[in-house]
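Encode chain A's predicted structure.
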Amino acid sequence: MSAVEDKKLQGILRCPTMARILAAFNRDLALLTHTVWMDNRIAILMELKYMMDRILPEETLGRRNDKVRCSYCPRLNKAKGMSDHVVDKHKDQNPDAIPFIPVRNEKHCANCPDSKRVFTKRGLADHKLHRHSKQS
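Encoded structure for chain A:
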């Protein structure tokens, strides 16, 4: 289908709709049919168009330099800077739980809402012990 549409296969496979379809067909060990492609073609090609403009739809795990739309406002940011944007603009949201950004091993300190610093699990425990255990 990618040859007929004159689109790169890897680009089509990154589209969220195509990923969901492939997951379902792989789970059932069935081949993707032409009818399924035609039913979903418009949605997949629209997602691909936005992705080619470096704007990823939600649910897409992008590369670090891809632009993604914030879940809390209409602003576009690079995926690597989305947690900093959430810390700056959406203080009531958890910058470690952004829906379409892959989960990292590093976490922000919940007791330091204006800090962009991230910690490993052990580093966060040490930080909380030294910075926040003496607060009343």
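Helices lie at 2-5, 9-13, 16-27, 34-52, 82-89, 121-132.
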